[in-house]
Amino acid sequence: RKEFVDLYVNYVFNESIRKPFEDFMKGFLRGCPARKWKMFLPVELQIILQGHTRCDWNLLQKNVKYNQYKRLDQTIRNFWTVFHKLPEEKKKMFIAFLTGSDRIPGYVLEHFTFTIADPKVENPDEFCPYASTCLRILFLPR
Predict the structure, then answer these.
(1) What EC numbers are recorded for this enzyme (predicted)?
(2) pTM of the predicted model, to two decimals?
């Protein structure tokens, strides 16, 4: 029985996926040659490929740029008060809303920034905040 289980496990986890994995590896290495990846430690490579899973939210606040707002405007102070009270999962959902991903790219944790802009709408109470994911701009009505 042990031999049967060993052979079955080997088939399921190795043999049955050998061809699809080889095809994937071939395509991956075409775009990302293995010799370039050898300079990274495994943990560094994981961050580069997956992004940062943890964020320093105070650093994020410090790096934000403002367009037609000032750091001490009441709308901005209210935004950050509410933001810092959110649970971690909701903060990541905000990052996903803003950027399209719930993770910050691996190479820019200290330099990651976004802009909070006033959309200059006539009646701000009729508009919800919206984001430009490509430019990382949060349009936040007053």
Answers:
(1) 2.3.2.26
(2) 0.69
Task: Tell me, yes or no, whether 133 and 74 share the same domain.
Answer: yes
| Domain co-membership, 73 together with 129 | yes
H or E element, residue 138: strand 137-139
Closest CA to 117 of 71, 67, 65: 67
Q: 94: closest CA among 141, 60, 142, 47?
A: 60
- pLDDT tens per residue across span 42-70: 888 887 777 777 788 999 999 999 999 99
CB 96 within 8 A of CB 53: no
Q: Which active-site residues does the annotation give?
A: 134
* Residue 52 belongs to a domain: no
Domain that holds residue 34: 1-39
Q: Is residue 135 part of a domain?
A: yes
